[in-house]
Amino acid sequence: MTTNQPPSPHDTPAPLGDRTAKTPVIAFLGTGRMGSPMAENLARSGFGLRVWNRTSSRAATLAEHGAFVARTPAEAVQGAGILITMLADGPATERAANGPDGFLPRCPGLVWVQMATVGARWSARLAVTAARHGVTFVDAPVSGSQAPARTGQLIILASGPDRVHDMLTPVFGALGRTTVWLGPAGDGTRAKLVLNTWLVDLVETTAEALSFTGRLGLDPASIVALLQSSPLGSPYAVQKATTMLAGDFTAAFALKHAVKDAELAVQAAYGIGTHLPLTEALLPRWRHTAVEHADDDLSAVYITA
Ligand SMILES: NC(=O)c1ccc[n+]([C@@H]2O[C@H](COP(=O)([O-])OP(=O)(O)OC[C@H]3O[C@@H](n4cnc5c(N)ncnc54)[C@H](OP(=O)(O)O)[C@@H]3O)[C@@H](O)[C@H]2O)c1
Fold first, then answer.
1. What's the pLDDT at 23?
2. Ligand 1 center to 109 CA (angstroms)
């Protein structure tokens, strides 16, 4: 494992469509909650940017930052040297790659950086498809939510061939505060599965503890204050506890994606002959909560705790 603290990003914009430019043009697919601020940071750092989003109105604001808004994934990758995908999941990513107007047939020689959380099986499948089309696949999911995405403070769990590390250093430098190179493509996703297992278990513990506090006749806010003043309360748990008590479930990380990530971790565990009893135990209630709160923040699981 190697860790890069990337230098400051390039300041010179590259002309759109010039694959030989020193600063490569970047195609960016998926301008959702995470993708939009990430793409904006790339544009601000001087990269030529070509963006695509299924709902094109959600990509339109990036035009104000100099990005070309493409009508299809295939159009987005024209002339790009690097492609970043930040779509919801594996199926959406595969469709953008191989579906009608998919990018894969159009871009031999491209470096494809897959940054969404798609799980181990999907990451492996996308890597195979990329190789078949002469595309270099880099698996680089991120740790950190919407606020770190906005401020360029994500942690990038990168994995892929050594030969692209230097090329991607300024790109990751514009997106995150730390890049950890973990090994061959797929290791980033495996690390992300572990971090997300930690995350969902922590949120479940937080919700359950607050609910238990209330049922004991204590003020949950006093428990949050206690946790905050002791090593027991991680900053993330305290932040989520605060939003739970405020009843503010505006999504930073949508519950539907948290359920997806918990399911991906459970599947990956089964795949290697083990299991995750805590994560498996929370899933039925989380799925049930997601029926009404799919697009709310994952802290909405407090409602049913
Ligand atoms: N939010 C977080 O805190 C966080 C942190 C780390 C990693 N992640 C991961 O990063 C990825 C993106 O998360 P997000 O929070 O940005 O999600 P989001 O706001 O829900 O955005 C999802 C993106 O995927 C697109 N999409 C969904 N289904 C699609 C389909 N069938 N075909 C084409 N495009 C489709 C959406 O397009 P439309 O605009 O058209 O719906 C949107 O661009 C997910 O894998 C998530 O698990 C999220």
1. 76
2. 26
Residues 206 and 278 in one domain: yes
Which of 183, 215, 231 terminates a domain? The answer is 183
**What's the pLDDT tens digit per position in 81-121?**
999 999 999 999 999 999 999 999 878 889 999 999 999 99
Q: How far does the centroid of ligand 1 lie from the alpha carbon of residue 33, in Å?
A: 7
Q: Are residues 96 and 152 in the same domain?
A: yes
Burial of 209 (0-12, 13-18, 19+ CB in 10 A): middle
* 88 pocket-lining for ligand 1 (C-beta < 6 Å): yes
Instruction: Say yes or no to pLDDT of 20 above 50.
Output: no
CATH number of the domain bearing residue 235: 1.10.1040.10
Whether residues 209 and 267 share a domain: the answer is yes
Nearest protein Cα to ligand 1, atom 44: 88
Q: Specify the number of domains making up the chain.
A: 2
* Residues spanned by the domain of 43: 2-183
Average pLDDT value for residue range 122-143: 97
Of 164, 183, 202, the residue that ends a domain is 183
CB of 95 closer than 6 angstroms to any ligand 1 atom: yes
